[in-house]
Specification:
about 575 residues; alpha/beta; 19 helices
Length: about 575
């Protein structure tokens, strides 16, 4: 069976059981497997009536929701190539992707989004609202299209951190293989065999389906005996988690780091014995990880484990078996923090071009700071430059209408990830940075910015974002944003003083070689965001755009320091 046939079969088996939920205003809106198939049937009939056929492309522009999943399934069931787009992305960027992929139709949840695209590009393809897609007949349709391995299933656009986003074509073989790997790993997490069945899994999900990892996760969950609860309001994640009580859910490092900072801040504000015990318990936990111990702190760790950690764990999710984290390297300190609380954090590494995943932590054995071994059937190695190279059935066939860039990315039969990394003797990988982000000082020293940015962010939770500067300069400098940002466990962050930042910079500089020390910094009054074009759709820094936006401030920063 193909991956799509397996999903449809699973939904038929769960005809009267809930499989997908939206959380709205603190309440569930649910659909059963049969109801989701009926919604997909309505969408299939609509697409056929509009003349779309196998191999056509159709854009899907909407936030996560039940109807998003139904339309996605409908398109694939008709052999249509899905082009998922991010609803929060700048209209100009969305328009560029629509022009590049040239879909026959755009299915859109909000009229305002469509109007923006049509305003920029009067020749845009027809746009239809979700209400129209689901207004028609939901009567029985044919079995889903049976994809051949080479058939394209989707075109997902890269984030464009250092240039123009590219359309990554993923085929049926890529997706079928990946779902086999993700299901096997989740079976390990849930301690079940593929044939054993068991209690229905509860999953919470907030990451947009237009990202490859999030999309693969959605397809995985729909193929399992599970109920998937979708967040509809990022400002209410804490409340939504309490309602969903998941067994596991997918995360990005930014959220976990904010959760950690909020927990630390909340306990610190209590003061007294609670703050003291918590601080000493953390110290003892880290000691034990290094094979050391202290008698007084050991008592504090025992006390915190018995009294404090269960309460904190319950506030995040009383049934959590693990948090799953990807998209960027997670600070080892953050991973250890959750492990101390009794919540494993399992890391995943991959790119859109690798069908989202190359490595996955094994829930039975994983090492903080590393992202696990290569998934079965996938080979990974290091080039002389330190770049990670990958080959296997997860590798995409190519970029949409970009043969030269495809040939470069797949040169020598390996996919060139652009990531730097290292691997230990047991095959466990660590990601250390991006080759394109490497800062080359005019002294000739090379500096990977990510570890230093991470170290600054770890010590300065008040700062929302940090970006290192220094390419072709004589020293390193940094930009900090400190504007308000909502986290999972609290309200807006407050601004931070120059003195506080300088103290953190001094602490990070201590012990570093001279060329890695940060000599100056500038506080940016606005946050880097998707809306202002300074973050990619999945939250990564657009370093070139940020440098261009604040070119005058950066220049003054270096002139002032030199003078």
């Amino acid at each position: 069976m193909t991956f799509l046939e397996k999903i449809f079969a699973r939904l038929e088996q769960a005809a009267t059981a809930p499989v997908l939920r939206e959380i709205r205003d603190g309440r569930y809106v649910s659909v059963t497997g049969g109801e989701l198939l009926a919604l997909a049937g309505s969408a299939r009939n609509f697409l056929k009536a509009r003349g779309l056929k196998m191999g056509d492309r159709c854009a899907l522009l909407a936030p996560n929701g039940i109807r998003w999943a139904a339309i996605d399934l409908a398109m694939m069931a008709e052999g249509i190539i899905v082009v998922p787009l991010y609803a929060r992305q700048a209209p100009a960027e969305l328009t560029a992707m629509v022009k590049d992929s040239a879909p026959s139709l755009i299915c859109c949840s909000e009229a305002a989004l469509a109007a923006e695209i049509q305003k920029i590009w009067p020749g845009a393809p027809p746009v239809v609202a979700f209400d129209a897609v689901f207004a028609g007949d939901s009567s029985a349709t044919a079995p889903p299209f049976r994809h051949a391995d080479h058939d394209a299933v989707t075109i997902i656009y890269t984030s464009g951190t250092s240039g123009e986003p590219k359309g990554v074509v993923l085929n049926a073989a890529n997706v079928t293989y990946m779902l086999g790997c993700t299901n096997a790993r989740l079976d390990q997490l849930m301690s079940r065999s593929p044939r054993s069945g068991g209690q229905t899994e509860r999953i919470f999900h907030y990451l947009p389906f237009c990202f490859a990892a999030s999309w693969i996760a959605m397809l995985t969950f729909l193929s399992r005996e599970s109920v998937l609860a979708l967040s509809t309001d990022l400002a209410k994640l804490s409340d939504e988690l309490k309602l969903a009580v998941p067994d596991y859910f997918l995360n990005v490092p930014t959220l976990l780091e904010r959760v950690r900072a909020r927990i630390d801040e909340s306990i610190s504000k209590r003061g007294g014995w609670a703050a003291a015990v918590f601080a000493r318990a953390k110290r003892e936990y880290l000691r034990r990880r290094r094979g050391e111990s202290g008698l007084a702190d050991a008592f504090c760790l025992w006390l915190a484990s018995a009294v404090m950690f269960p309460a904190v764990r319950k506030s995040i999710g009383p049934n959590l078996k693990a948090l799953i984290c990807g998209s960027a390297p997670l600070a080892p300190e953050t991973q250890l923090f959750f492990m101390m609380l009794g919540i494993p954090v399992l890391q995943v590494y991959g790119l859109t071009e690798t069908t989202a995943i190359c490595t996955m932590d094994d829930p039975r054995h994983f090492e903080p700071g590393r992202v696990g071994p290569a998934i079965p059937g996938v080979e990974m190695t290091l080039a002389e430059s330190g770049e990670i190279l990958v080959r296997g059935p997860n590798i995409f066939p190519g970029y949409w209408q970009r043969p030269a860039e495809t040939a470069k990315a797949l040169e020598g039969g390996w996919f060139h990830t652009g990531d730097q990394g290292e691997v230990d003797a047991s095959g466990n990988w660590r990601i250390t940075g991006r080759l394109k982000n490497l800062i080359v000082l005019n002294s000739g020293h090379n500096v990977a910015p990510e570890p230093l940015e991470q170290a600054l962010a770890e010590r300065l939770p008040e700062a929302q974002q940090v970006m290192l500067l220094g390419n072709q300069r004589s020293f390193l400098a940094a930009l900090f944003t400190t504007a308000g940002a909502n986290g999972l466990h609290g309200g807006p962050r407050s601004d931070v003083s120059d003195g506080r930042i300088q103290a953190v910079v001094d602490a990070v500089n201590a012990g570093l070689p001279h060329y890695k020390q940060i000599r100056a910094f500038h506080i940016v009054p606005e946050s880097f965001s998707i809306e202002n074009g300074l973050l990619t759709a999945n939250g990564k820094l657009k370093r070139d755009a940020i440098s261009a936006r604040f070119a005058a401030e950066i220049e003054r920063l270096y002139q002032r320091k030199v003078s």
